[in-house]
Amino acid sequence: MPTSKTSAKPPAGPVLPDWYLRSRLKIRQVLLLVALDEHRNMHRAAASVAMTQPAATRLLADLEHQLGLILFERSARGVAPNAYGESLVRHARSILATLDHARDEINAISEGTTGKVMVGALLVAAPVLVPRAVARFKLKHPNHTVLIRDGTAAGLLPALRRGELDLVVGRVSSDVPGEGLTFEAFYSEPMLVVARDGHPLGRRRSLKLAELAQWPWVVPTPEAPYRRRLDAAFRHAGVEPPRRIVESLSVLVNKVLLQETDMLGVMPRTVAHQYAALGMVRILPVKLPPPSGPVGVITASGRPQPAAATDFLQSLREAAEDRACPGIQVLEQANSQRRQQ
User: Fold this and answer.
1) 284 and 196 in one domain?
2) Which of 36, 118, 229, 316 is least enclosed, having the fewest CB within 10 Å?
3) What confidence tens digit (pLDDT) does each residue in 31-90 have?
């Protein structure tokens, strides 16, 4: 087996011929690589994949010997992947995710359905764009299953990289590390300040952000990129960010809080106009900083998309194009008239 110096000194050229991993890598080694990364302990990793510890140790040693590389550094605290190990673990997760897709597709066919797509939805896209895309997709593929998982970029993008999601819909932000990801922008989506219909500020023709700092707010959680921009905007206006706050990324919770209290909040323009047209909120005349990027879709680079995901992506594009249709302009005009009343 190679010594630990192998991992410290990069080889002068390619380590493996093109065919090597395809012909020699065993699925049990793939499972063990992921288990070791998750547990960082040989005994627990072996147990999680139904192996004995000696068998797991030999399996890893065989792989490292065949590669001529150390993949995991051993210490009294356990094992941890080095740069080579991290790379192989990342691709091992992708292999397992692809096999899971195959299993789900085979099960779907046997149960009378024909496909499944797994979608991550960020707050900017969850209330309008994603539901409209799902509706279009289901018209064409009534027997396909759509799984939607909402959350933050910090939670959804790692799941996308691991192959647990086919795509993520949301803000294509410059704040998001782009390594291993592909971005497709659909449209820009400014943020607006909203309050309940009948709010004391609702009849004001103009407002400055500094005037709103003393009101209660429902705001994005601290890890959300726009939260940082909003806090910075208050400070730029000469005041500290609001202290009477609720931090939430739940569309439903935010909507109810805004409707039933005097809290203020921020919403993407499309969502704000839709809710205002239904009488749920009122858009306040406040200038906000622009978001960090347009709304779009994020996929994993170099990973083949299942047919269902490819079709869903097309439904997203169509729904995004419809957003620019005259209907949206009519809603914007209607809400402008309401603000002037």
Assistant:
1) yes
2) 229
3) 999 999 999 999 999 999 999 999 999 999 988 888 888 999 999 889 999 999 998 998
Burial bucket for residue 228 (CB in 10 Å: 0-12, 13-18, 19+): middle
| Contact of 150 with 120, CB cutoff 8 Å | yes
Task: Let me know if residue 60 belongs to a domain.
Answer: yes
End-to-end CA distance of the chain: 79
The parent domain of residue 39 ranges over 12-95
The identity of residue 83, as a single letter, is A
Tokens at residue 240, please? 């500290």
DSSP helix/strand/coil, 198: coil
Q: Do 161 and 299 belong to one domain?
A: yes
pLDDT over 90 at 106, yes or no: no
Strands 167-171 and 181-187: unpaired
Cα dihedral sign for 274, 276, 280, 284?
positive
Task: Name the domain count of the chain.
Answer: 3
Nearest one of 93, 122, 99, 92 to 298, comparing CA atoms? 122
* Tokens representing residue 226 in the block: 């726009």
Interatomic CA distance for residues 83 and 282, integer angstroms: 52
